[in-house]
Amino acid sequence: MSHHLDTPLAAQTGQLFLDDLYVFDGDLSTVLIMTVNSTITGAYAKPDFHPEARYEFRVHLDGADFEDLTYRVAFGAADSDGRQALRLNGLWGPAARGDDAVGETVIEGHTGETATGPNVRLWAGRVWDSFYIDLSLLGLVNAAVDGGGALDLAHWNPDKAQNSFANSTVAAIVLEISHDHAQLSPGARIGVWAATKLATDSGGWRQINRAGHPMMWPIFWPDDTHFTGKANTRHPSDDVAEAGKAIADAIAATVAATGTSADPRGYGETVARELFPDVLSYVVGTPTTYGFAARNGRTLADNAPEVMLSLVVDTAVPSGLRPDVAAHLRGDRFPYVMPA
Fold first, then answer.
1. For the residues 181-209, what does the mean pLDDT come to?
2. What pTM, to 2 d.p., does this model score?
C-alpha cells in the first residue's frame, strides 16, 4: 500500500528538519551530532525519528568535492514504550556518494541506549537542547539581510537577552568515531554535512533537508518554513554555482547599507566563499571552536549565532548570552547530551 511519501505534506514533519550539526574532538575520538525535530518549531511530532527516513553524516576528505565516507542511520517504528530500533550502516568510496548502495551494517540497537561497533559507538534519543540565542536579535538581522538594509541595533540591549530555546528539546543522533578509524585518524582534514532523506513511493530517496554551517537557514532562508527551497535538496558541490552570487549580493547590500566595509561587494564574495560549499570543516584531533579567531568544527558550547550574525553584517553583534547559559545541558562524556 502506498504511503504517499512523495507528497509535500509527507515531508512537513519536524522529524526530518535538521536543527544543528556539531563536529568536535572527543575522548581519542571525533564526535558527530545532528539534532532534529525541535519542540520550538511547532512541527514537533512523535516518535522522534521517521521510520521511513534516513539520517546521514556525510564526510569529505582532504577538501574533496564529494564524500568518501557516509554513516547512515535508520529507525524502525516506535514500540509501546516509545523505543525505536536503529541501524547504522557505513559506506565508503563511490558508494558513499549516492543512495543506491546499502553499505555495511556497523551497529544495531535501540534509541535511548548506547550501541557499540568497530571503532564507533552510537546513541540516539530526545535530549534537552543546549543551543542558545535570543530570537529577537535574529529578527533584527533577518530584517536587514532580507531587505538589503542597514542593521539597526539601537533598541537591542544584550544585557536583557533571553534564551529563546530554554526548556526546549530535540531528537539527537550522536556518533563517536575512534581515532583508530583508518580514514579519521588525527590530522585528517574533513568536511562534514548532515542530510535527512525520505523514502519515495517509487522506491528511491528524496533529500528533505541538510545542514553544515550553523544558522544558514535562519539567516538566508528564514521564510523557507516548509523546507521546499532548492537549498535543501542540492549537494554542497553545487552551492557556489547555484547560490554563491545570491548570498554574496545579500551580504554586500546589508554591509553597504550598514557602512561597515569600504568594499561591500568584495566582502560579500569573501563570506560567500567562506560559507560555501556548506560543510563543517574540521582537522581531526585538534582543538574545536566555531569562533571569531577560527572555525574548526563546532562544539555544543560554541556561541555560533553570535559568530554568524557578526560575520554576515561585518560588525560585532553581541548576543548577550554566554555558553554557561546552557552548561547544564551538556556533558563531557559520551553521549555528551542530556536525555530529556
1. 94
2. 0.95
